[in-house]
Amino acid sequence: METIVRKIRHLLPAALLSVLLSSCTEELLFEEHPRVQEGLPAQVTLGFRSEKNRIVTRAAQDESYENRVNNLYVFIFNPDGEVHYQGFYTDNDITYDTNAGRSKGQVSFSTTSLNNVQIVCIANLSTESVNSNYEVTQEEMKKITSLDELEAYIMTLDEQTVERSTQFMMTGFAYDDNDSDQTNTVINIPGTESGTASLECTLRPERTDAKVEFVVKTEIPNEHRQGQEQWESLDFRPRSWRVMKVPAQSLLLPKETDDADGEGCTYFDTDEMPFEIEARDANYLLDSCAFVFYMPENRKTPAQTISGDGLTDTQRYALREERNHTTGGSFPDKPGQQFENGDFTYAPANATYVEMSGTLSYKVGNSTVNADVTFTVHLGYADGNPNDYDTERNTYYTYHVTLRGVDDIVVEVSSDQEENERRPGYEGNVIFSQEGLHELDAHYDRVLITIDRSQVGDMTWGVQTPFDKAIYAGNFCETDTPEQNGIHDYRWVKFAINEDYGEETGQYYVKYPGDQNYKGGEDKQSGYEGHSSYPNARLLDAHQLLQRLKQEYREGKTTGTVAVTAFIDEYVYVREPSDQNTNATPLLSEWRRYVEAEDRLLYFINGANSQYSPDGASSVVEAIQTFKQKSIRTVYNVKKSESELPTAWGLESRMEGVRWAPGNVRLGTSSSNGRLNTIRCLLGEDYASNNSTLLWTDVLKTSEPYELNKYQDALHAVLMRNRDLNGDNIVQPNEIRWYLAAIDQLVDLYIGEYALDNASHLYPTNAADRENQTYWHYTSSSADGNDPWVLWAEECAALGNYDGSSDKVGGKYAYRCIRNLGVGLDDPETEPTPLIPDVTAAESDGTYVIDCTNLSEKARRLSREVSKLPAHNDEQPSNRPYGKFRVAANDADYPTPKIDVNALNRWNWEDDHDWVWYQTASITPSGYRVPNLRELLIMGTRLPKDAWRTYTGKWGWPVTIYTHSSKAMYMTYTSFSRGSYGTGNSSISGKNGGFRFNAEDGSIGATGSKADGGYVRGVRDEQ
């Protein structure tokens, strides 16, 4: 692994403030020049100008916000460090340059002349209209009496997050412009009773935060570009990133060394977040992926110094990620492990580092290499110093990470030098396989495999799950069980040897015989009538299957292949893996243990060529068959406790197979209970009587896993995600666990989409994943008359009916399957906890408060905004709600809607404006802003009907002849990424702005030239 390290470049100062003072003297006022007469009046004008900064990823705030001065606190300290002057200036007191927004301007104030002063400024203190994420207020600054107090002042983050609002905390000193080194902060202030003179110095407020950007790409090493070891299709699928040991506080003013640390200071780890940008080439292989975050300064002394004596640069750098080793343990379930990792050996305990994870894969000849990797990068390492773990304020760090296979990673920090070094901190579970990899979603599934009998002699098996990570190293005798080797979680894949069930061709799947057929369970005959001639056939787990095959190997069956149907359970744990009481569900409420968990794997491997690393953190296996299953994804907040959030719902990672016709969902009467809808539509209104005549074999084919038999529609396609659990071939209510999403659940999926990776989004980024279609519509289990409600994913979450949609998609619809979490199967009418509860009534002041805290933190803005949101489109992070937000009262629409009716009984809205107009409008009530798309979508689906006022227009006087009444149209601040406005890609024609909500019929969609007028209902973030 190589690391190219360069000197990290500092940001230009956030603001350069020129100080001009009116005075009668023309003397130069720096230390080497005559001193001024003290105590005379002095009129001071402070001008400021912010330098621009480039934008790299979506989470980075636009440069105009990073450099924005919304208010300013100014201190002047006398030579003894005491306050000589202090003043606070709001945006009303600041004169801004109209051509530069709030990045340039000036303030003026009166003081008295004085020698040897220091001038300090603090920008963006916390007020009702300014929030910089740090709790620094005017009241706190008024208490400061000396420079020592100010330098000792520690400010804390108001929320433990690496996101930032549109306002940044900045502090700085005035520097002597005549000092060639620009390091002198001692200034003389002249003054006089009359006349004018000028003093020039520069006040340089700098952002107290550092900005850190990571860009990840792949590269095939030169030695693998040709020849027998040539690699092809090198790819990386990023999963998540997180930042560890982030300071929750910072000194207000910078010091030469050190930072805010010691008693009372805390550090936090962020949750895992999906990568923000993911660019791919024409073959859908990774080009690059990226993310960015902000953090307070963190400057720590190493726990131990890395010496250069006798070590190469490569070895010195490797020690940055070295951990202490704990020996003496026994690791029978992890062949090759010798010790366990402890704390970092050299890195400081509270040094910040980043963890990134994902799946790296490539092909070598006929083999596939697949690795789930996690790599660590400690921040710092400026100028190639292995003992540098510092992250400094007002510094922009860019890390270019290059992945070059399963044991090679290159990290390049923006630099001036060229040095090549190996990079450690790279762990993973690497699978070399000639048979390929069976990648499975979280629902029930099946795979048809063949096993080469000649490989059985050296074959063993292993698992990686939330409960077990192990390779079975026993001898497969009856007394050497997996449990005796500490392995319990291996029964989630069952195997049917095709020949045992009469399927001798090896070309078709065995019909699932029922749970009772498992040899390690009830050990009963198959419940399927078609298996009646094979009473001794049994489902086997991985251990039992290899016991059987090894016995046959010893009996001489060492050539040929054996066909096996593998049945994969859903990724759900309602009991401990060691608990074989299949009627018990003690973990029903503990769904957080497996939702959003790591992929689980079960593999058959060559035991002679598979082992763990000495620290047990990585494994390398030569796989013969591998089953890799994704966990259930969710948009719910898994950090909430069981009492706060007892139930939820989750989803599959993606829609497998093709689109289908919707199916008959006329009995789907609920907009939110998709399971009840699905059961009623499949089994009838009298589903509880168990009189169903729907047969599993009439729905599922035995030749293809994702093809349907008699019923060719999305409603029946959900059964491909379920299983005939008792094997009787009759579809029963408790066997329908994965169901067709209701329309409200589809909307909630979009609202919480930021909690999901790209593959789980409703509108796939990769055109091939949506059959290269621009229009991508979802059917639901909720009926709209005789047809389903439909969601138009290309317009984010636009809702419509089947008639308006069918022609655009050729009658074929995408669909998503949902799984309830923590909810028993007995009563389909029981729904999970709402993602965002309905608001049933207004507050005492007529406003409405919407609580979004059940929503995953990944899907929410974690930094509170107290002014306008930054300009953004639907794909950017600003299009997320805060944890709670307040909606203005129903009589506070802006402007006030009016209906005009004419003599021909035609009507239209008055005083409405198009979407573009609201991009710069200052709306009422004061303190409220235009909502983003997701906020307006939440408002439209959660507020009570009377939250939207009905307006009436009349014509005729003195007698009214015509009357028309309607609820109004409401605009968002969010632009449409696939429209023609701004940076939109124009892939959807006729859409030239943002989005509009129709309160009359509840619809929402992208605006066009003929549907672009509306009003605004203001919102504001609520603490």
Automatic annotation (TrEMBL):
Entry's localization field: Fimbrium
Gene Ontology CC: pilus
Domain Major fimbrial subunit protein N-terminal: from-to ranges: 49-177
Family to which the UniProt record says this protein belongs: Belongs to the bacteroidetes fimbrillin superfamily. FimA/Mfa1 family.
Signal peptide span: none
UniProt keyword Isomerase present: no
Stated name of the protein: Major fimbrial subunit protein (FimA)
Family matches, as Pfam families: P_gingi_FimA
InterPro entries the UniProt entry points to: EF_Hand_1_Ca_BS, FimA_N
Keywords, alphabetical: Fimbrium, Signal
Lyase as UniProt keyword: no
